[in-house]
Design a protein that fits this description.
mainly alpha; about 300 residues; MetI-like fold
Length: about 300
């Protein structure tokens, strides 16, 4: 995790440092003068050399200090703590939608590979993968918020109802991936010899699917779900913009526009930590589901 954070901060800091433009022009607005600009740069410490600024930021980051926002002159951590819970809620419900809908449909589609249901789900999965997030979000707002009036179109002020549209918009694309991966891995699993052996012993079809085929077919699906965490955090940028949600993604876009380097770095560091933690959780789930991996860990520890 440490090399990832170091590489991320260095690349992003370099891009923001060498991007044309003067953040003090955005900060001062109509009051901009060369004298005031120099004064603000000195106050923010952005008049120092590149490496001095970068290592100064790293020193604060090690101590949990994300720096001061150029725009609000407040600690970036305060804004992150205010915005990140909204992003976290949307991403978690989007992930629940991905797994809760994509996994069972993928399993049912694999158990009936040549049925009308299977063909319909495959078409829907292709549509889900192809739909852009911002376009799907606008369509859902037009249908369920404007035309039918069932759900709110923006913010998170109305509880669970206000989470439904953003979660479905964010999770639809990745739900289709989960569905397709589960279907293909289940089709491969149910064609294995041990499945035929279980059926020959008289085990009922439901038990064969639940106890034998599904645990072995879950490994690729878990991998896809773990990889989708980073994609969901990236997709939250568009989702929060479409639904006017005050989250980390929207804060990141606004910070990039205003060349607010500490805020940009803070958002990306938090996202990178979330991806790293989710990958760790996926590894632990691997060991829980597959006894062979757990045995390898045990042998390594011994």
């Amino acid at each position: 995790m440490i090399p990832v954070i170091l590489a991320l901060t260095f690349v992003v800091f370099t891009i923001m440092y060498f991007t044309p433009g003067d953040p003090t022009a955005i900060i001062l607005g109509n009051e901009y003068t060369e004298e005031l600009s120099a004064q603000v740069k000195a106050e923010l410490g952005i008049d120092r050399p590149f490496l001095v600024q970068y290592f100064s930021y790293l020193g604060g980051l090690v101590q949990g200090d994300f720096g001061m926002s150029y725009i609000t002159r407040a600690p970036v951590s305060d804004q992150l703590f205010a915005f990140f819970p909204n992003t976290f809620v949307v991403v978690i419900w989007a992930m629940i939608f991905c797994v809760g809908v994509g996994l069972p449909i993928g399993v049912l589609s694999a158990t009936k590979p040549n049925s009308i249901f299977s063909n319909i789900t495959m078409v829907l999965s292709l549509l889900g993968v192809s739909l852009p997030i911002f376009w799907l979000g606008l369509l859902l707002i037009l249908l369920f918020a404007v035309t039918l009036g069932w759900l709110p179109a923006n913010s998170l002020d109305e509880g669970f109802k206000s989470i439904i549209l953003p979660a479905v918009t964010l999770g639809a694309n990745y739900m289709a991936n989960v569905m397709r991966t589960t279907r293909s891995s289940m089709l491969e699993a149910i064609r294995q010899d041990y499945i035929r052996t279980a059926r020959a012993k008289g085990v009922d079809k439901g038990s064969v699917i639940r106890k034998h085929a599904l645990p072995n077919a879950l490994m690729p699906t878990i991998t896809v779900v773990g990889m989708n965490i980073g994609a969901l955090l990236g997709g939250a940028v568009l989702t929060e913009t479409v639904f006017s949600i005050p989250g980390t993604g929207r804060f990141l876009v606004e910070s990039i526009k205003s060349q607010n380097t500490p805020a940009v770095l803070g958002c990306l560091v938090i996202m990178a930590l979330c991806v790293a933690v989710s990958n760790l959780i996926v590894d632990l789930i691997y060991a829980y589901i597959d006894p062979r991996i757990k045995a390898q860990y045990a042998e390594g520890g011994a």
